Amino acid sequence: MNMIKKSKTPRESEVIMREMVMPSDTNAHGTIFGGKVMSWIDIAAAMCAARHCNNPVVTVHIDDIEFRSPINIGSHVIIHASINYAGNTSMIIGVKVESENPITGVSRMTTKAYLTFVAIDEFGKPVAVPKVEPITEDDKRRFENAKARVKHGKELGAKLNK
Ligand SMILES: CC(C)(COP(=O)(O)OP(=O)(O)OC[C@H]1O[C@@H](n2cnc3c(N)ncnc32)[C@H](O)[C@@H]1OP(=O)(O)O)[C@@H](O)C(=O)NCCC(=O)NCCS
Hints:
Layout: E1 7-8, E2 15-20, H1 34-53, E3 57-67, E4 76-86, E5 90-100, E6 107-119, E7 131-132, H2 137-159
Parallel strand pairs: 1-7
Antiparallel strand pairs: 2-4, 3-6, 4-5, 5-6
The structure holds coenzyme A (COA).
């Protein structure tokens, strides 16, 4: 039987996905289509959330997505997803996307995003998830930032009467 842990470290659920930009992934300028990057981000983050809670998950919110630089056809794309924070049934996953030229080996940060997933049971209802146990300085910084992001999101929602 799969024992559900009370808390898990970000390392236990981390996902690193590697893709290559093919012609069908590009926009009219010959660089990657933003929707393609968003799809990879959603997949990597969903796998990370599911590994953390060991339950099916659904995306409920995508926050603060930034495209900092274009990615050329033929480039490799590395999508890093790690859990930053968990509430009762929700999980904040931070995603960082890097592009890498496979010939020169030069890489650069291209995109970052924060996604919220909820763990669900067989009836589609939210279920409790393990807490996040931050270990490294980066884990701790991401944990505090995500906690502030949740608080800010709730305050903004109340202000806008969402
Ligand atoms: C996810 C879903 C089951 C949640 O149901 P719900 O009745 O809204 O549940 P709750 O209001 O109890 O919220 C559950 C958790 O989600 C969080 N949440 C809900 N909506 C949110 C939003 N828009 N942004 C951030 N967090 C949100 C709540 O804060 C709560 O977190 P907590 O338990 O950690 O405190 C329901 O909204 C749903 O099925 N949404 C569609 C998901 C989907 O189809 N996604 C696309 C494909 S994967």
